[in-house]
Design a protein that fits this description.
The structure is a homodimer of 265-residue chains.
Chain A lengths: L1 E2 L6 H7 L4 H7 L1 E5 L1 H9 L6 E4 L7 H12 L3 E4 L2 H8 L7 E6 L15 E6 L4 H13 L5 E4 L8 H7 L2 H4 L2 E4 L1 H8 L5 E5 L16 E5 L8 H6 L2 E3 L12 H16 L2
Parallel strand pairs in A: 1-4, 3-4, 6-7, 6-10, 7-8, 9-10, 9-11
Antiparallel strand pairs in A: 2-5, 3-5
Helix pairs in contact in A: 1-5, 3-4, 6-7, 6-11
């Protein structure tokens, strides 16, 4: 275990760069922060290559467990101070730990669709907070995973990891083009369900088949026509007010919980 | 109509300060941005005192409608450029319009609870994005309004207004202490419903009475025990994964849509 307290330390500088997408891609590494999320990761068997922690927090059992597990797995635990944690995190109050993790995705081809009754699919999601929140919901509804289509925001961004509250480490995430996904989907059973404004089918009255693949479209534009045309079922959520759409993570959750309840009978 | 293209202009500086809570409170004014949100506001009868717009966008009918309506109501429409709009908004791509509005809240005492079957209530909400998203959901489910309890984040923050997608202008918002709310609630009919981990009552199987007041607790801690004890009904949303909670705006929406569906039969 070593200690770093200088802003100018090269490792601090290199770690801070992982807040930037280009550097994450080049390094294949990302940042996660906060005791709750890092503990969730540890319990899922994911340990950081580098763990920064605040020494005054070492008496807390969960921090100790992270330090011990990180070092046992060949990673490095580094004592530092709250100022450097803030610099790494970009937050005033970053908590007591930040970890550097290797990026991981699940190849679409290795997904076993029979493993779950519900899968979430999102296309061209732009907001990292929405992506993280959808991951958190995926965990809660017991979804098999989240499949990101086309040009989605990076699931390893600091904001997405934070909003996922650790679900990034527990919910399989795959990335594919629409065409790759469509071919894979049609190679086996699965009902593709999309939200649409152009249908009379209320989401509470529709019939869902297992496994259900729930498709969420881009925040501003929804899904393009050719994706809607491919859906086996288009449903609408009632909108009783002035606006014509819900937040994408909210719409996904309302749909996901409906499908879950229906599958559970 | 006048034109401002200098960053150093005092009105630009004063307007930019409204991104800060203290200055909003002192001025009683807040910022909203983007054609969609300002148009939603206009249609709800809310016009800005000052409208900043980009001249290249004046040929767009919705911008023109805003300029005309603002001036007709005695407000000022100011031509500016994209750089100044960015500076006012803090975003790289702020759209074509930003408005300065007078703050408005609905006094709790003037709420007519019979006007809607569902009301949303949130206590100590910390995240402005969650607050705005809950407002957007409140609009969608036809809720009578949102009641903010105790120390909630400012509904007039730039992030909350943005996440509300205009619902801030269409959904009544009240602010009260827990004790003020409790006294008001018990002065008439109303079922107070809270989410809890400490109940076996599934939210899909519970009985909801109208008007339903749906209480969302603080993001990190949930609601305190004395609020849970005051609830007429505590329900749980199933959590099938590793985590024990949903995002606060997601949980509110899942509950709100369940209550809506049950009220509609």
């Amino acid at each position: 275990m070593r200690s770093i307290t200088a802003f100018s330390n090269p490792l601090v500088k290199a770690t801070r760069l992982l807040r930037d997408k280009k550097h994450r891609r080049d390094a294949g590494r990302f940042l996660a922060e906060g005791l709750r999320i890092l503990t969730e990761a540890r319990e899922a068997g994911r340990l950081p290559e580098t763990l920064f922690f605040v020494p005054s927090a070492t008496d807390r059992p969960l921090v100790n467990a992270l330090v011990t597990a990180t070092e046992a797995a060949g990673g490095e635990a580094i004592e530092t101070n709250a100022d450097i944690l803030s610099k790494l995190s970009g937050k005033d109050n970053p908590g007591s730990v930040i970890g550097v993790y290797e990026e991981f995705l699940t190849p679409l081809a290795s997904i076993d669709r029979a493993a779950a009754q519900l899968w979430l699919v999102a296309e061209r999601l732009r907001d990292p907070g929405n992506l993280g929140t959808i991951l958190r919901t995926a965990d809660a509804v017991g979804a098999g995973g989240l499949i990101l289509l086309d040009d989605c925001v990076d699931p390893f961004s600091v904001e997405a990891v934070r909003a996922s509250m650790g679900a990034l480490f527990t919910v399989p995430v795959a990335r594919a083009t629409w065409e790759e996904f469509r071919m894979w989907l049609r190679s086996g059973p699965g009902q593709l369900v999309g939200l649409s404004l152009d249908t009379d089918a209320d989401y509470r009255a529709a019939d869902y088949a297992s496994p259900t693949f729930l498709l969420t479209g881009n925040e501003a534009q929804g899904m393009p026509d050719h994706m809607a045309a491919e859906c086996d079922l288009l449903v609408k959520i009632p909108m009783l007010g002035k606006a014509d759409s819900l937040n994408a993570a909210v719409a996904t959750a309302v749909m996901a919980y409906e499908v879950l309840a229906r599958h559970r009978g």
